[in-house]
Amino acid sequence: MDFNVKKFVKDAGAALSRVVQITEETLGTSEKTELDAHFEHLAERANATKTWTEKILRNMEAMLTPNPGNRIEDFFYEKIDKRKPNRLSNLEYVGIDMIEAGNDFGPGIAYGSALIKVGHCQQKLGQIERDFIGTAANCYIQPLRKFLDGEMKTISKEMAILESKRLDLDSCKRRVRKARSMLGQQSESGISAEVLLDQAERELRVAQSEFDRQAEITKLLLEGVSSSQAGHLRCLHEFVEAQTRHYAQCHATMQELQRELAGLPGASFHPTTSINSTEPVENGQERARVICDYEARDEEELSVSQNEVISVREIPGDEDYLLGFRGNQRGRVPKVFLEILSYQ
After folding, report:
1. Which of 25, 116, 231, 237 has the most C-beta neighbours closer than 10 Å?
2. What are the C-alpha distances in Å from 235 to residues 1, 138, 159, 221, 225?
């Protein structure tokens, strides 16, 4: 293995010069080349993007995989490039126990049959949850991680190079100032001050050129952060859509379970027993409980409050809305905000 002594000495000298420059800047005895305001703004925005992306990613992973041990295990499998274990969710484990208990008590009795039905529902909810976690990881977590591991690492590397070039430039400026102050004097090395000044100015021109080139490269990378944020916005929309589908599937599954439990022989549970309503139910109408507040967006819609019970009926040709009735008021209400309580 060849060892270039001259290169080693040159690199060591440059590193020492940078240390001296940083020290003098810290003590306030040396000037520092400042970057333009636009560059500083881009750098601050990139740092903020990196910081908040790291926090969002960390909290998203904790939300989707609450167990820290599972997160560590998943991280380990990613590093060794192996497939993650297909572990069951807590809901699925609960479902298994309920089904086994129901079969042990006997599916012919009300409690045993109910346990089996609820157990199957928990398993279905667990599968829905796992599907959502996988979708969220693909559409949101992976792009954020790729951004941090790729683009932001490259920016950090180029920023470090730019700082080195800036220190070299300021060191050259310091040598030029020193050489100019020695004009007309005899140097200790015997070389004339004019020659030393000419050499220092040549080194300054080279350092300035390298600094300007590195600043332009880094600036282009920093400007690319805006495009990355636009991509993250698209990913965020995909995540919200996935989350909306997830909760809608969970809601539909629980409504089906309520109907099954209400239909069991001798069952004392009915969806409407805990809710009273004075709204009359006419032919073709059903009662519905409002899951959460909804503010009407126009005169054709009806504003409703959480836990309020209203009368509703289907709107021909409209799969997303029901026609709601409250006294003399009427208007469309999105189906996802309602839970049907009576069946005609």
Report:
1. 116
2. 49, 9, 27, 21, 15
